[in-house]
Amino acid sequence: MALGMISFLALCIFFIQVPQGQTGCAEVDSMTEAVAGEGFLLGCISCKRREEVPGSAIVDWHYKAAGSEEFIQIFQYEYNNPTILHENFEGRLEWQGTMGTKDVQIGSVFLHNVTYNDSGTYLCTFHRTLYHVLDEVDVVITKEVELTVVEKANPELTAVISEIMMYVLIAVLQLWMIAVLIYCYRKIYAENEAREARKAARSQSKLVESKDPCDGIYLE
Fold this sequence. Notes:
Helices cover about 30% and strands about 30% of the residues. The longest helix has about 55 residues, at about 155-210. By secondary structure, the chain is of the alpha+beta class. It has helices at about 1-15, 155-210, and strands spanning about 35, 40, 55-65, 70-80, 80-85, 95, 110, 120-130, 135-150. The radius of gyration is 33 Å and the shape is elongated. A hairpin with a 6-residue loop joins strand 3 and strand 4. Strands 1-9-8-3-4-5 form a 6-stranded mixed sheet, with no helix packed on it. Strands 2-7-6 form a 3-stranded antiparallel sheet, with no helix packed on it.
């Protein structure tokens, strides 16, 4: 029962969060707090407004250290060719975005073995080309992630609230299902009682009708 409710909840959340016309893509902001020594997903999603228009995209990642004024390019993805462009991130960045197509809409990268030196600003840039029937349109979309590295994970307020709401909704759904079961049981029980009463009434009626009218009359 609980598994079915969780699936129902996930489906509801999906339809609430995904805008119309973008059923295959939903833009979600990246998390911003990483734990030292662990891995972290630098999220970056840019959905096309019209899915039916073909396109292609190149994704660039730039990084600016805390206290610095200059961005440095650290990563680039161009159709099946992820490239790490800075020695400080060599062997630590892994492409976690759209695969198998040039029409990239998810440009996330996974940062392995996070260090305190990784704190700073990350800039994700989509260089997208849309292929309309009559012409091509170039679009540039940028998204920024302000990363803070901490020693121990702190649950974010939104995550805590979301989890609480999930359990509240599950509890409400369970109570609702229990109420429905009780209602159905009472309805079925009442119908059975009524049916038994009708059977008893019909049996009594047949007994009365079949009684010999000469009973009790004796000939002298």
